[in-house]
Amino acid sequence: MPIKVLAASISLSAILFVLNSSTQAQDEWEVTGAGEASLASGLEWLARNQGPQGNWESNDLGLVGMGALAFLADGHLPGRGKYGDVVERALDYVIRNAQPSGLLNIADPQRDMYNHGLATFVLGQAHGMTNDKRISGVLEQALRLIANTQSRDGGWDYRARRQNYGHDLSLVVMQAKALRSAVDSGLEVRNDVIQLSIQSVRQKYKAKNGARSLDDPKIKEGPGQFTYDGHNGTTAMAAAGVVCLQEFGQYDDWRIPKNLDVLSDAVKDLKAPRQGDGRVPFDAYTLYYVGQALYQVGGASWKDSYPTLRDQLITAQVRKPSDPGEDGSWRDPRYVTGGKPSRLFGTSVACFILAIPNRYLPILQEGKIESVRKRF
User: Fold this and answer.
1) What is the pLDDT of residues 261-273, one digit of tens each?
2) Which residues on neighbouring strands pair with residue 34, listed in sequence order?
3) How many CB atoms are located within 10 Å of the residue 286 CB?
4) pLDDT per residue over 145-170, tens digit each?
5) Average pLDDT over residues 19-33
6) Which of 113, 112, 193, 202 minimizes the C-alpha distance to 154?
7) CB atoms within 10 A of CB 331
8) Are 341 and 59 spatial neighbours (Cβ–Cβ below 8 Å)?
9) Measured between alpha carbons, how far is residue 203 from residues 155, 216, 219 in Å?
C-alpha cells in the first residue's frame, strides 16, 4: 500500500492553530459554562485514574487511544502543558504495544479490528496535531494492515484477516475513520480501498419497505436506515453509515438525510437522565457516532440535537468529591463490563462529545473536508 507523508513548509499543529482561531464555537448553544466545567472534571478523572502504565488498567488499545483522544479533543498535546504527560503515556502505551504486523491489538483476537481501527484513528489525529515521526512509523504500518485485511466486498472481519465477505457495518466505520484520519494527517491512502469501503456501506442500507438492492428503484422510496448487517437497523448503525459517507466526502448521498431523521428522532426520544448516575446517553459506542454524524452534517440537525446530548452528559456525570475513583466520570455498562475500563470508555466518549465544539481535532476541521470530496 503506497503511503507517504506529504511535504509541508509549516507544521500541521501550526496550521491547526490558525484554523482554530476561526472555527471554534461562537454560539452559546454549543458551549456553556456548565459544559466546560463538566469537560474539565471529566479530564481530571482521566488524569487521576490513568495509572503509571498509561492504560487505565485496560489492554484494549482502542480504549486507551480513546483516553488520549479526550485530551486531544480539548487541545492538549503530548508532552506539553497541564496534561501533556497523560497524553504521552497513553500514546506511548499504544505505540509500544504495536505488533510487528502493524496490528494494534494485544487483547482477544476477536477484537482485532475494533481495537485496531480505533487506535489507528487516534494515532492519525495525534500525528496531524504534532507531526511526530515516532507516531508516523506505527501509523503507516497500521494503515497497510487495514488495506491488506479489507475483504473483497469492501468490509472487514473482526480478526485481522482478509476474507471474501466483511462482517458488518460496525467494523467498516472503525476503519473508515482510521483511513480518513490518515488523510487529515497528510498521509495518502489507496483510492480503491476507499471506493470498496463506500460500496460496502451503501450495501448496508435498507428501506423501510424492505428494499435493499442498490438496483431496486424502491430503495429510495420512503424512510430507511443503515443496518448492522443489511437487516438489523439500530441508532448506532444509522450514525455509523452517515459518518462513513461524510468521512469519504459523499456529502450529497440521498441516504444521509434519511438517517439523520432516525438520529434526530432518537435524540428526541432520550429519557431524562438521573442526576449523577453516570450513564451516558444511549451507550458510549452509540453516542460516539451519533455526536460525530450530527456534527459532520451540521445545520439544523446539529443545532437541534447537540444541546440535548451535552446537557444530558452534564446531568448524568458522577459528582462524588470524596471518591476520586468516581468523581467526574461517566460509565458504559453495555460494552465494557465493570471496573475502570468501563469508566474509561464512558468518560472518554463523554469528554470527546463535550469538546467537539472546540474543533481542535483535524477530523473536525471543516476547511479540510472539501479536499476529501475531490479525491474520492
Assistant:
1) 999 999 999 999 9
2) none
3) 24
4) 999 999 999 999 999 999 999 999 99
5) 65
6) 193
7) 25
8) no
9) 10, 12, 11
Do the Cβ atoms of 158 and 113 come closer than 8 Å?
yes
Domain ranges (residues) in the chain: 42-375
Chain mean pLDDT for the chain: 89
Burial of 272: CB neighbours in 10 Å, binned 0-12, 13-18, 19+: exposed
Of the candidates 12, 19, 27, the one whose C-alpha atom is nearest the C-alpha of residue 307 is 27
Alpha helices, DSSP H, located in the chain: 12-23, 33-48, 61-73, 84-96, 112-130, 133-149, 169-184, 191-202, 235-247, 255-268, 284-297, 299-316, 339-355, 369-375
> Three-class SS of residue 19?
helix
Rounded to whole angstroms, the Cα distance separating 234 from 246 reads 19
Return phi, psi of residue 361, to 5°: -70, 145
Residues 21, 370 contacting (CB under 8 angstroms): no
Closest CA to 362 of 73, 169, 137: 73
| Residue 366, CB-side half-sphere exposure with 13 Å CA sphere | 15
| Per-residue CA distances from 220 to 59, 178, 234 (Å) | 43, 29, 19
Report how far residue 362's alpha carbon sits from residue 17's, in angstroms, rounded to the nearest whole number.
Answer: 11
> How much is the pTM?
0.91
CB 101 within 8 A of CB 142: no
Range 42-375 has CATH code 1.50.10.20 = yes
Between the alpha carbon of residue 270 and those of residues 76, 313, 369, the distances in Å are 31, 12, 30
**Which residues are 331's β-sheet partners?**
279
What would the DSSP string read from start to end of 99-143? -TTS----S-GGGHHHHHHHHHHHHHHHHHHH--HHHHHHHHHHH
- pLDDT tops 80 at residue 104: yes
Q: Which residue has the cell 429510495?
A: 220
First and final C-alpha spacing in the chain: 17
CA–CA dist 136, 141 (Å, integer): 9
